[in-house]
Amino acid sequence: MTTTSFNTGWTVRPKVSPYAQLQAPQGDGIPVTLPHDAMITLPRSEDATSGGRGGYFPGGVFEYSKTFDVPADFADKRVSIEFEGVYRDAMIFVNGVFAGQRPNGYSGFVVALDPYLRYGAENTIRVDARAHDDSRWYTGIGIYRDTRLIVSSLTHIEHGGLQITTPDVDAERAVVAAVVTLRNDSLHTRTVTVVTRIDGPDGVQVAEASSPATIRAGEGLTVRQRFYVPSPSLWNVETPTLYSARAAVVEDAGIQDEQSSTFGIRVLQLDPQHGLRINGHTVKLRGACIHHDNGILGTATIRRAEERRIQLLKEAGFNAIRSSHNPLSPAMLDACDRLGMLVMDETFDMWTEGKSSFDYSLSFPEWWERDVEALVTKNFNHPSVIFYSIGNEIIETGDPLGSALGRQIAEKVRSLDSTRFVTNGINGFVAALRDVVEMMHANAGNADSSSEGGVNGAMNSAADFMSQINASPLVTSKTEESFSILDVAGLNYGDSRYLLDKEQFPDRILVGSETFPPGIATYWRLVEDNPHVLGDFTWTGWDYLGEVGIGRVQYADVPAVFEAPFPWITAWVGDIDITGHRRTISYYRETVFGMRTRPFIAVQRPENYGRPALPGMWAWSDTVSSWTWDAADGTPTLVEVYSDADEVELLINGESQGRERCGRDHAYISRFTVKYVRGDITAVAYTDGTETARTTIATAAQDGIALTATPDRAVLSADDTDLCFIAIEFRDSNGILATTVNDPVTVHVEGPAILQGLGSARPDNPERYDAVEHTSFDGRLLAAVRPTGSGPITVTVSSEDYDTVVVALDAVEKTVVSGDRR
After folding, report:
1. Which of 255, 353, 465, 675 is most buried, taking the most CB atoms under 10 A from its CB?
2. Both 476 and 352 in a single domain?
3. Residue 309 lies in a domain
4. Where does the Glycoside hydrolase family domain start and stop, copy by copy (predicted)?
């Protein structure tokens, strides 16, 4: 088998009917390299059907087309195309004839081309994709994940047909089990030999097995092999050691087909006394929910962008991610394997009960089994994957027959892969939603809103209300069957059940599958103190497009609305913003996790001082780690300091502003009201009266501010997988970020590359991410440069009144290895 990228040579255009083309012929389309998101290029408007849920982007239908040659000698081969994801309702046509489809926008699938090909001639492929009022977040449109052309012999290993498990591991040796699924599409019975080799992390062979197999014409079979790897190096989040396996189908001393995959040797254990153990050691999950978009790139799942997200999430203290609410890309799973990030991979956001007018619930009854099969096939050899989540806030989980559907899905997963744990992100409030609505209507106008069982008073705080409902006997009863199906009970906003379930269901193991960001100090204490609670997954680890403004701070002097108005574009809820910059809550969380001992200074924007803030379920404080403001000296300012120390003292230009208690018993946060004065501000941490650490931030100089451009690396791979991310910032001569500079910046790229995206983290951003000019936000923005070939690349960054910066890059060819990663 050979697999080669099929990402180049495509064009894209809006799709119109054949009859419309008679009146207004369409052009050939715009050349693009996959992965590609067509939606991010569309103009936004406040009357878009998607509303704030979809970031005020319009929907649409697009067609991707490509012409490709098929050699004559492919006639005795099997030829197919793998799509890792097409959003949505993909329809595939080869040489004008329908060849396949996939309603789910997040499932990988393979389309056989053989019946439609013209061998020794030119062929065409067309993929139609669409999106319209079918999601609760920004989805993108198009072939947004990788594609591959797969060519194999008639006797071959099936797609995803090399599966590796490690059923028995100790310090002396590890048993590695390989399952190789073969298919004989020839007209004759064939006897072949399956030779599988295991290589260690250093590339040196550690085991090999050979098995003859006779396959009747038109049939398939399974070959099972066991290997014994001596003194195994185990995979975990600290040392993510990877082995590799390569299975070859040999006939008459020649290799007919082969497939390869990396894998990890590790042992998973689960019980309420020790929680989750990996290789015998308890691991608490410092988790982040993440959406699938890549910020300024839209949903284009370019491999380097996926890798960068995992790198930055891990640097911020996370050791686990939850895909929300759809399967992760293979590129991100590869990064999780290499970098040591645990994964909860999720199937669906809905089952049969829809959450949007035209969502996947319309296809679920017919397609869910095939989509579960695709998920498990994709994940099977990835050691980073430890959970399969069968859904997110599924309405049916509060109904007995809905629970039966959940049981079907869970058992389907287990029949395909019994080596991981099954969970479900259940929100008890959603599971009991119909009953809650009836209660609210019944209690409307209840004068005694504070009485037990009343809901009106609880509605003063939506988070408190949800917590009360989650802990109620109503939810306990309604969700018991759905929870009983699972290995681990996923609780969305269900921390009120952590101790309750410990008493009522002592064998129930829990995980905070989705939680409110501001509550991490409370949640993490529960996680640390209770072994049956495996960890916490905050909403969210990385900001995303759509669900606009759910994490913003609202103020009482402006009418409060849940959905932020146009031109808001992001949720503004992540620990890390869409450009990869850590927000202040990220450092707070790192402190709570016990991974940071230096105090961190966060300053409220002075213009908001004194404004009464409305509590938001997902909102952190509107703070920036800066002492550079367009404010007069003496302006009152609120300063927050995050620390694990007993006390924190705040100094401005060396003058003490007082001390405040901090540490675990004070939620790791101290607050000071001070007068802003240019200079520097210092936080000093004390434990038992002794200074343990200090942090200083200073005001940027008013003169001498320069435009800077810093690439994440200078040498790139000259292919469709790579990107260079360039941090563009305004800094003074001491390197201090000038957060008050919000100026337009222009980026030009010369050489074999394109500007793939340019943008800031501004959440209410009216500008486009596909233009060559963009305005900085808080003194910074981000450019993404994508190679289109090999050779030197020059990136010129300019802004009026600042010296131009030139960045030199080089794209080089890399060695291409045949064989399938999975």
Report:
1. 465
2. yes
3. yes
4. 707-804
How many whole angstroms separate alpha carbon 284 and alpha carbon 192?
47
Instruction: Give me the CATH number covering residue 683.
Output: 2.60.40.10
Tell me: do 342 and 388 sit in the same domain. Answer: yes
Whether omega for the bond prior to residue 88 falls within 30 degrees of 0, making it cis, is: yes
- What CATH number does the domain containing 533 carry? 3.20.20.80
Rounded to an integer, the average pLDDT of 710-720 is 97
Tell whether 584 is covered by a domain: no
Angle, helices 330-339 vs 303-315, to 10°: value is 40
Helix 520-529 to helix 584-592 angle, to the nearest 10 degrees?
Answer: 20
Q: What is the mean pLDDT of the chain?
A: 95
Q: What DSSP string describes 367-393?
A: HHHHHHHHHHHHHTT-TTEEEEEEEES
State whether 137 and 170 are in the same domain: no
- Token pair, residue 654, equals 């060396």
CA angle 383-388-390, nearest 5°? 165
CA neighbor of 208 nearest in space, from 162, 259, 246, 164 = 246
How many residues are present in the chain?
A: 822
Long-range own/partner contacts, residues 6-9 (CB < 8 A, 24 or more apart): 6/34, 6/66, 6/68, 6/81, 6/147, 6/148, 6/149, 7/33, 7/34, 7/35, 7/146, 7/147, 7/720, 8/33, 8/34, 8/720, 9/66, 9/67, 9/68
Q: pLDDT grade, residue 439 (50/70/90)?
A: confident
Extract the tokens encoding 280: 């015998």
For the full predicted model, state whether its pTM sits above 0.90.
yes
Regarding whether 645 and 618 lie in a shared domain, the answer is yes
Residues 769, 725 share a domain: yes
What three-state secondary structure class fits 399? Answer: coil
* Structure-block tokens of residue 528: 């640390």
Which residue type sits at 293?
D
What distances in angstroms separate CA 639 from CA 245, 270, 554, 632, 698, one per listed residue? 54, 43, 18, 16, 14
Tell me, yes or no, whether 575 lies in a domain: no
pLDDT-derived band at 27, boundaries 50, 70, 90: confident
Beta-ladder partners of 443 = none
Whether residue 208 is found in the same domain as residue 293: no
C-alpha triplet 240, 244, 249: angle, nearest 5°:
160
CA atoms of 196 and 212, how far apart (whole Å): 12
CB 364 within 8 A of CB 353: no
Residues 125 and 212 placed together within one structural domain of the fold: no
Q: Range of 660's domain?
A: 591-625+629-698
CA distance 348 to 325: 6
If one counts the domains in the chain, the total is 5
Residue 459 has pLDDT above 50, yes or no: no
Tell me the DSSP string of 54-96.
GTT---EEEEEEEEEEE-GGGGGEEEEEEES--BSSEEEEETT
Please give the torsion angle defined by the CA atoms of residues 10, 14, 18 and 22, in that order, rounded to the nearest 10 degrees. -110
User: What was the pLDDT predicted at 452?
Assistant: 38
Q: Are residues 131 and 162 in the same domain?
A: no
Has residue 447 been placed in a domain?
no
Burial of 671 from C-beta contacts in 10 A (0-12 / 13-18 / 19+): middle
CB 421 within 8 A of CB 511: no
Res 16: pLDDT: 87
Reference 725, options 648, 659, 782, 773; nearest CA is: 782
431-447 burial: b if 16+ Cβ within 10 Å, else e? bbeeebeebeeebeeee
- The pLDDT-based confidence of 80 (bands split at 50, 70, 90) is very high
Q: Read off the tokens for 431.
A: 């599971």
Tens digit of each residue's pLDDT (9 = 90 or more) over 250-267 = 999 899 999 999 999 999
The letter for the amino acid at 613 is A
CATH of the domain at 145: 2.60.120.260
